[in-house]
Specification:
Blueprint lengths: L2 E2 L19 E4 L2 E5 L5 E5 L4 E6 L2 E7 L9 E5 L6 E6 L3 E7 L10 E6 L3 E4 L3 E14 L5 E14 L4 E12 L14 E2 L2 E7 L5 E5 L5 E3 L2 E15 L4 E12 L2 E11 L2
Antiparallel strand pairs: 1-4, 2-11, 3-10, 4-5, 5-6, 6-7, 7-8, 8-9, 9-10, 12-13, 12-21, 13-14, 14-16, 15-18, 17-19, 18-19, 19-20, 20-21
Length: 265
């Protein structure tokens, strides 16, 4: 049976609780995206293939276990290897970062994330959520993928104040052709991404601006000039999924990084 991973619009909050005040609030299923249009994917375990739908175009992709990163499972276009995706699925959330073939689908890589069913969100306490990050870097205005990035995700959640902050560390550059380490000599240094403290909305979503994560490459620094993150909480606040979009200025050009994070999966 095919399994749908990403679907549906974000709906409104309803409250719950007893006479002493609520310890949780109800939140609905919902989907959001960063860096492009929301992507819907289904998986057929019989063929081990994903079908990706973006802007009316469907692409069939084969599982590619050699490229897996932590909880992120990789796939590549069955008939067109220019397509690629990574998907991570938890108990009540999932996230996918998708790289299109620019001949068929306009725009760059995009990340879509979803709370797959109705849920609750604590109103007190704290939590530390850890997981993985998967980034795709496109060089300048070209359509070629410059490199892949594997990283570690950590989020600090304060349900009393309804705030969240975090970091993406150990950002390792990988060759998109082989998924191996980039550069035999001195590799580029890819600095951590710091997600500054931001409010958690009544629907369990969050987002903010990123100005960290610079690359140190061949003696020069590629500075982040336009960065953002968005995400949502799920499974009673024990899961978080989302994405980042970063424009790195470098020399006369630059490059675009779009990534996905999954914590608590």
């Amino acid at each position: 049976m095919n399994k749908s991973l990403l679907f549906g619009p974000l709906t409104l909050l309803t409250a719950c609780g007893g006479s002493g005040g609520p310890t949780t609030v109800d939140i609905a299923a919902g989907t959001d995206s960063i860096g492009g249009a929301a992507t819907e994917i289904t998986f057929d375990p019989a063929t081990e293939q994903y079908t990706v739908a973006v802007d009316g175009t469907e692409v069939v992709m084969d599982r590619l276990p050699a490229y897996d990163n932590g909880t992120f499972l990789a796939a590549r276009g069955a008939s067109d290897l220019e397509y690629g995706l990574y998907v991570s699925e938890g108990d009540n959330s999932s996230v996918v970062v998708f790289r299109p073939n620019f001949v068929d689908i306009t725009g760059g890589p995009s990340t879509s994330f979803v709370r797959t069913g109705p849920d609750t969100l604590p109103t007190s306490g704290t939590a530390t959520l850890t997981g993985d990050y998967q980034g795709i870097v496109q060089g300048g205005t070209a359509t070629d993928v410059f490199l892949l990035i594997d990283g570690d995700m950590s989020l600090e959640v304060d349900f009393d104040d309804a705030t969240i902050s975090g970091s993406i560390t150990d950002r390792i550059p990988l060759n998109p052709e082989t998924n191996g380490r980039m550069f035999d000599g001195t590799p580029p240094v890819i600095n951590d991404l710091e997600l500054p403290e931001t409010a958690i909305s009544e629907t369990g979503t969050f987002g903010g601006v990123i100005d960290s994560g610079a690359f140190e490459l061949r003696g020069d620094t590629a500075v982040v000039v336009d960065g953002a993150f968005e995400g949502l909480l799920a499974d009673n606040g024990t899961e978080a999924v989302g994405g980042v979009s970063l424009i790195h200025a470098f020399g006369f050009g630059g490059f675009l990084e779009v990534g996905a994070f999954a914590a608590g999966h």
